[in-house]
Structure formats: structure tokens, C-alpha cells
Amino acid sequence: MQVTVVVPTYNEAENVTPMTEALLGLPVPSLQVLIVDDESPDGTGQIADNLASEHRGRVDVLSRSGPRGLGRAYIDGFRRALARDSDLIVQMDCDFSHSPTDIPRLREHMGQNDGGGGPRYARGGRTDERGGGGRRLLSWWANSIYTRWILGCRVKDTTAGFKCWRRETLIGIDLERIHSQGYVFQVEMAYVAERLGYRVLEIPIYFEDRRVGQSKMAIPVKLEAAIRVWELRSRHRHLRPEDRLME
Ligand SMILES: Nc1nc2c(ncn2[C@@H]2O[C@H](COP(=O)(O)OP(=O)(O)O)[C@@H](O)[C@H]2O)c(=O)[nH]1
Ligand SMILES: [Mg+2]
């Protein structure tokens, strides 16, 4: 079973090498790493290219140009992973907020489900203590109350970014349908998957604050995401399991 871990990067020069090495060291046979870089000014792309030549066949780099964005990077990365015949596609951050060592667990617990995600707020999920009370409360409210209430979803953590998808699920979701360019991409994928009747199991994870480098999630980005949720609702609420794209 071919597993591809898609890792989007924007200014992750300090993280990209340890992350790639941690992934390659996992006890997961046929694991490949796909780094999707958006012309990071700090030279992450060059480091990623060096990693690809060092680990030929196991590390691949997709260098995007033009408008950047987390959603755009993931869509292009998923397309490449599907074109390269991956059976399982993992998505995760490069900053060690998501721990590479959780991948075998995520994969195992996903079982026969169509996907698996690592929620931070479901029972058993924890966030890093350094996050601060106010920030954690706001984040919990935005993800677990506001977004779920508007979309009427069952999924507990709509913005979870650590997920594992079966190839058939990504095909059925139809990436053409996903319009989010930025962070709200996570919500859109979770919502569309649920509307189409896919079972995405939530497997609690411990989400750490990034070790080094800076978050790109500024306040205006968060506000924009909050408004975009309404757009997602009107765009996708008619979706039914019959609307899955067949291979
Ligand atoms: N390719 C690409 N990656 C991005 C972009 N924005 C963020 N990322 C990556 O997405 C992951 C999560 O971003 P981060 O800034 O840590 O968001 P936070 O964890 O919500 O604060 C990291 O690996 C980032 O490098 C982007 O525009 N393009
Ligand atoms: Mg982060």
C-alpha cells in the first residue's frame, strides 16, 4: 500500500529537514513525502529540492508559483499523489504541531473508514498548555461551536489539519468542487466529505505549538475564515452521497 504524506510549506526552512527525516524514519513501508512549497522567501524550496535528490524516489517536491495558499497547495499536492497511484494520502503541517509518530496510529485506527482525522478538541484530544486560556477558548468556540452550528456537521473538529484519506475518498470528493484557497480548506473538505456520506473517523491527537518559525494564521485570516463558512454552507449543503464522483 503506497502512502504519500503531503506537507505544505511556507517559510519552514528550519523544519523541513527534520520533518522529512522523521517521516522517512517511520515504520511505514512504501511511505513517500511530497513537499508542496509556495516559493518560500526563506529558501525552503531549495532545501526541499536537496532532500529530494538525497532521497530519490521517496521525497518529491512540488514547487508552486503564482498565488499561494494552504488550500491551493493541498489541492495540487493531492492531485499529484493521486496521479502517482497513492492508496493513502496523509496531510499534515510541517511545524511539528502534528507529530509524525502519530501517523502509524492514525492509519491503523482508520480501519475500514474512508478517512481519519486527528481532532484536538474531541474527548481525549488535548492542545498544548502553552496555548494560553483565552486563545484556546476562542479557538474551541470557533471550531467546535460556531462552524459546526452553521454547517450542522457531526465532525467535532472541523479545522483539524492532520488527516489521512483513502484514494477513493479524494476521488469521490472531486477536488474540482473544493474552492477554498486558504485555511478554510480544512473545513470545506470535512464538510463535503460528510455531505457525501463518507465516514471520517476522528482519532484524538496531541497538538503542540509550532517549535520554530512563525504561524501564518493572523487575526484577519481567522476572521475571513469565519465568514467563509457561510459560503461553504450555501455552496455544498445540497450535496448527497449520489453526488460522489466515480472513478
Ligand atoms: N504551500 C503553502 N504552505 C502553507 C501556506 N500557508 C501555510 N502553509 C503551511 O501550512 C502549515 C500550517 O501553517 P501554520 O502557519 O503553522 O498555521 P497554524 O498552525 O494554523 O498556525 C505549515 O506547514 C505551513 O508552512 C501557503 O500559503 N502555502
Ligand atoms: Mg502551525
Write a brief structural summary.
The chain is of the alpha/beta class and 247 residues long. The protein contains eight helices and nine strands. The protein has a single domain, classed as Spore Coat Polysaccharide Biosynthesis Protein SpsA, Chain A, CATH 3.90.550.
What does this structure look like?
The chain has 247 residues and is an alpha/beta fold. It has a single domain, classed as Spore Coat Polysaccharide Biosynthesis Protein SpsA, Chain A (Alpha-Beta Complex), CATH 3.90.550. 39% of the residues lie in helices and 15% in strands. The chain has eight helices and nine strands. The chain has helices at 16-24, 44-54, 70-83, 103-110, 133-151, 167-173, 185-195, 219-236, and strands at residues 3-9, 31-37, 59-63, 88-91, 115-117, 126-127, 163-166, 200-202, 206-207. A seven-stranded mixed beta sheet has the order 3-2-1-4-7-5-8, sandwiched between helices. Strands 6-9 form a two-stranded parallel ribbon. The longest helix has 19 residues, at 133-151. The two termini are 19 Å apart. The site of magnesium ion (MG) has 5 residues, from loops.
